[in-house]
Every structure is written in structure tokens, then in C-alpha cells.
Amino acid sequence: MFRVVLGVSGGIAAYKACELLRLFTESGHQVRVVPTREALRFVGEPTWAALSGNPVSAEVWDSVHEVPHVRIGQEADLVVVAPATADVLAKAAHGLASDLLTNTLLTARCPVVFAPAMHTEMWEHPATRANVATLRERGSVVVEPAVGRLTGADSGRGRLPEPREIFDLCVRVLAGRDRDLAGRHVVVSAGGTREAIDPVRFIGNRSSGLQGLALARTALARGAEVTLLAANVALPDPPGAKVVRVESALELREAVLAAAETADAVVMAAAVADFRPAATSDSKIKKTSGEPEPIRLVQNPDILAELGERRRTGRLPGATVLVGFAAETDDVLANGAAKLARKGCDLLVVNQVGAGKAFGTPDNAATILSTDAPPLEIPLGPKEGLADTVWDLVSTRLS
């Protein structure tokens, strides 16, 4: 059990912090809520006290004999501020202490996580960006806000990430996970490509994108700037990732090559169709009484092999780490070893698929092949665990 301080600042997203509080308490953690005066205009003190089981105050003058403006921060194992307004980020960056929350931030010697929420213009303002950079330089974790509906009719970046996403990040911070990818740009592909036969039908595969999104989420938690190339993924976007949506292998190739130019690592977790129809009908192909015309297929480009060739010939930085995924049904390791050599990547994550394995499941087992180490067996477990192992190996190569 950890002692968590949940700071809540004055934004409409304060109501979402109730769910975050519930996630912490139901996981057995002791939570002290420290709202700002403005936050109490959105959610009242009785709500925070009832949900946390602890007294709540925004003032340094309450229970002065207990010296709360010093003690709360000193005793905490984690301070998380959600939502964190532009005002609180500015005060924290400049060391101001105008209330109990900002005093707590000054006295805390534990990890601090900020989950910002504000309008897009405020988030993109140079002052806010400078304050965020300052906080990150000092070791605080500042989560990138999500894109979506904001207050009123506005939409854009600045939405508070979902409480579950914030909670999962905090759990990782409490577990002592390093921010070893801070300052790195990583590209992750996820999902499965679809190759159109006509406006209705396509050639595709069973990939859900779960493993690719797990890679994106864990990279974000480890401090990376993440570009997620989502091929037909029907899952929520990881908060903080730049998401580029693609459909076909040709679209994915174009997106990968563009993003890879500034990437420290590229992880090709998407299932890319090997073939596509040579011609696509502009209208739905009608069923007739006879046999349908055969569909002639042509090969799609091998995106991972092209990345390896570009790195070899200097069109991609030589320090870029390349990671591929291989879905196999038979002769898994032999086929994987051949692909590793053929594609020119550093790591190849080999999955055995079929009969409920890998595709569409929350768990995964794999063997990671590399150019400089024996095969690494990853037993069946959550896809986030496999993702962390991949980033461990990538981080070692980057450093």
C-alpha cells in the first residue's frame, strides 16, 4: 500500500478525478485529496472526504498544529495532480506556494505526476509549453493531454486523459519504472491493413491492434514521444500519442517512411497484408449465377525490409532501432530466424498465431530474436509485459 496525494485543480474535468480516486482506493492505496479552492467549486469537500476516507482541505491554515503544508508532501509516496490547470503548472514550475496543493508540491520528495486539462490554446501557449518543459527537466512526469471534446462546443488537444490511463501510469511510476525513453521519438504501427477488392469487400487479417497499443502506452509511460500508425484499429487512442490512421499497406508504408525520418526507434507491430488485388472495382461486384472472376493478387511492399535497406544505405540514421513482428503458424523459430536475417532489423518478435493465440487476446507469448543475443522466450502474460520487454531491449540499444 502506498500513500498517494491526489491534487485536484479548478477545471471542469475535476469530476473525473473522483473515478481516479476510486481506482486508487480500491487498489488498497491510502489517498489524501488536496484540492485547490477553485476545484471545490466543481466538486465539494464532502465528496472527496467520503471517497478517500481522509479529511480534505485546500488551506494551509487548517489543522496548523499538524503542519500540513509540509507534512503531506513529506509523507507521500506519489503526488498526482489531475486535472492540472495551466495555473497550477505555472505555479509549480516557478515554485509558488499560494495554497495547500502548491505547498505540498514544494515539499514532496517523491515522484510527481501532472495530468493537464485545459483548452487547446492554453496548452499550446509558449508560457505553458515552457512551464511543462521546466517540470519535466526537474523529473516530474507531465502527461500529454488527450484530443477530444473540451468545455462547451470546442474540441482539440487539452482533454484530461481517462482516469484508467492516468492510474495505470501512476502504478508504473510507483513500481519504479524508469523514464528511460524520455526525449526519444518512437514510431509504432498497430492493427491490420485492409486491401480493397471493391467499396465493400477487402482482404484483411485478424489483428486487433491490442499489442501495438500496448507498445504505444508503455512507451508513453516511459517518457517517449510516440507516433502511432493505426491500421483499422477500433480502440481508444492512447492519450499523448500522435495518431495517424491508415487503411492499406501502401498507406502504411507512406506513413512509416515519413515518421521514421525523425524516429529513434520503429516498431512494426501491425499485421501487414502480403498481397493486394491487382485491380480494385469502383463499384460493388455483384453476385451472378456463374463462378466469380478470379482475383489476381500482387505483392505489397515489405515495409520493414525497406526500412532496413534505408538504414543500411544511409537514407535512415544508422542509430535507428528497428523492431519487427512475425506471426507464424508452423516452424515458428526457423521462419522467424530467416525473417530476421532477410529484413535487416535489430529485433524480431515472433508470435505463434491461430486457435485463439495472439490476435484479439489480452495476453501474448513470444520469442524475441535479435542480431546479437540468444532467443529470449516471453511466457504467456499481459501484452503490456511483452511491450515493456521490447522497450527494455530497445532502450539498451539506444543508450
Automatic annotation (TrEMBL):
Catalyzes two sequential steps in the biosynthesis of coenzyme A. In the first step cysteine is conjugated to 4'-phosphopantothenate to form 4-phosphopantothenoylcysteine. In the second step the latter compound is decarboxylated to form 4'-phosphopantotheine. Keywords: Decarboxylase, Flavoprotein, FMN, Ligase, Lyase, Magnesium, Metal-binding, Multifunctional enzyme. One of its GO terms (molecular function) is metal ion binding. Pathway: Cofactor biosynthesis; coenzyme A biosynthesis; CoA from (R)-pantothenate: step 2/5; Cofactor biosynthesis; coenzyme A biosynthesis; CoA from (R)-pantothenate: step 3/5. Residues 1-185 are annotated as: Phosphopantothenoylcysteine decarboxylase. Pfam families: DFP (PF04127), Flavoprotein (PF02441). Residues 3-171 form the Flavoprotein domain. This is Coenzyme A biosynthesis bifunctional protein CoaBC. Residues 186-399 are annotated as: Phosphopantothenate--cysteine ligase. GO terms for biological process: coenzyme A biosynthetic process; pantothenate catabolic process. InterPro entries: CoaB-like_sf, CoaBC, DNA/pantothenate-metab_flavo_C, Flavin_trans-like, Flavoprotein. In the C-terminal section; belongs to the PPC synthetase family. In the N-terminal section; belongs to the HFCD (homo-oligomeric flavin containing Cys decarboxylase) superfamily. One of its GO terms (cellular component) is phosphopantothenoylcysteine decarboxylase complex. Binds 1 FMN per subunit. Residues 181-395 form the DNA/pantothenate metabolism flavoprotein C-terminal domain. Its EC number is 4.1.1.36, 6.3.2.5. It comes from the Bacteria. The gene is coaBC. Its cofactor is FMN; Mg(2+). CTP binds at residues 274, 284, 301-304, 325, 339, 343. It catalyses: N-[(R)-4-phosphopantothenoyl]-L-cysteine + H(+) = (R)-4'-phosphopantetheine + CO2; (R)-4'-phosphopantothenate + L-cysteine + CTP = N-[(R)-4-phosphopantothenoyl]-L-cysteine + CMP + diphosphate + H(+).
